[in-house]
Amino acid sequence: MHSSKEYVCVMQLHRHVAEEDLRRVLREFTGAIYQRPPLRSSVKRSVRRRNVYEIELLEYSGSMALMRVSCDAGTYMRKLCWDIGLMLGVGAHMRELRRIRTGPFTENLNLVRLQELSEAVYAWRSEGREDLIRRAIMPGEVLVCQMPKIVLRDTAVESIVNGAKLAAPGVAMVSNRVKKGELVALLTLKGELVAVGRSLMDYNEVLEASRGIVVEPVRVVLEPGLYPRAWKRGEQGRAP
To answer: In terms of domains, do 33 and 73 share one?
Structure first.
């Protein structure tokens, strides 16, 4: 849900404008923008900041513009079209929308239809074939391949699984992309996904820390009981 997104969008301008004017305005909407969610939305209608990484004008004919947009999660395409129309002075609205990427998942590389999934399960159960189901069902670690990562010592894994926060002594390795306040993936030394959490320190702070809480878990994935318990009775609360 928090991963960046990519869309293909059809925007209809309410009056034709020169293509060079359209491209100029699209460039102005690249980077940090401020949006108020539209009336029909599932979130509070307060102004929020989002990043638009790229807007590519694929086709422009008459009053119709076909665009590819790469942006932060939570960016409303229909509001983006509306605002572009306001900047152009002619008005605009979104006609069609298709999401083509969410995080590492794209419609061309690693998406399967339910029919394909059903056939893969049938082939696995009836013929013992694993090739189709391995393509359809990917390891959970794929979900976090684009996220900053912290690798845990084996002594910290079971504590995290049982609800503890990650303390500095439990860190074995840390990505230089870790930033305070952002989501990070917690992995075992074997590369197993343990949890996703919010970092309470920047990369340099983690390197220098010998104590203190580094990450507060948000979602635990690994099942309990796979790693040895390293805390004594009454000490649960943070991962050593």
So the answer is: yes
Rounded CA gap, 240 and 233, in Å?
14
The answer on 133 and 95 residing in a single domain is: no
Residue 223 corresponds to which amino acid?
E
**Which residue segment(s) compose the domain that 72 sits in?**
5-106
123-149 core/surface letters (b: 16 or more CB in 10 A; e: else): ebeeeeeeebbeebeeeeeebbeebbb
- Global pTM value: 0.71
Angle of CA points 174, 178, 183, to nearest 5°? 115
Domain count, the chain: 3
The predicted-structure confidence for 70-126, as pLDDT tens digits, reads as follows 999 989 999 999 999 999 999 999 999 999 998 888 888 777 889 999 999 999 999
Residues 95 and 80 in one domain: yes
Same domain, 102 and 9: yes
Spatial contact of 9 and 96, defined as CB atoms under 8 Å apart? yes
With a cut of 70, say whether residue 195 has pLDDT above it. yes
Contacts of residue 197, defined as CB under 8 A and 6 or more positions apart, other chains included, come to 166, 183, 184, 186, 215, 216, 217, 218, 219
Regarding whether 148 and 189 lie in a shared domain, the answer is yes
